[in-house]
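Continuing the series of single-chain predictions for the mutant panel. This is the parent chain; the variants come on the following pages.
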Amino acid sequence: MVKDYKAVVFDMDGVIFDSEVKVVECWKVIADKYHIPDIETTCIDCMGQNQAMAKEKFLAKYGEDFPYVEYKKEMSDLFHSRYDNGRLPMKPGVVEILKYLKAQGKLIALASSTRREVVTRELRDAGVLNYFDAVICGDMVSKSKPEPDIFIKACEELGVKTNEAYAIEDSHNGIKAASRGGLRPIMVPDLMPVNQEMKELSLDILDSLLEVKTYLENLSH
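Parent structure:
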């Protein structure tokens, strides 16, 4: 444990929102309609990455003629019809940890591979946008997670060194990115199982944001 942290950088999907399971559900609807095999494995393989990287993985698996853009739009339209306007469920402990960090005078950033327009809307609809001092999104950096660019940019925006920030992530790509960027990664697993590499790269692996809050509280004791 390192006590002298200045900031916490959160991933969004699977950390702030219980959205990854909802995305997989929507992709399953599209997969059933168009007879796409093994969609859940493909979705999980893409977690934490931006749209360009996800497209590459879909084409690699299903062929260069796979109509990814068309199917992705259909999935996205379905997702937004179900979960826009504040209907996207938040993970337990989100508001509690954000309030705690603000009360402690810590800086808070978001580093999400999702597009800025979507990120801003979802955070605003959930009533938590104002907690964040910086919001860095997938369309604001050239390289996606597992490259560290998005975390480095988040720390630059906050004006802190990367080793002064914790990163809260659920995906393997996210933990790799935070570790490569020099942040202090804490994994809160969602759909992706914890493997040996995640144990080695993460400072700790905790079950929820409420546990992360307790972890951070214990640093000051």
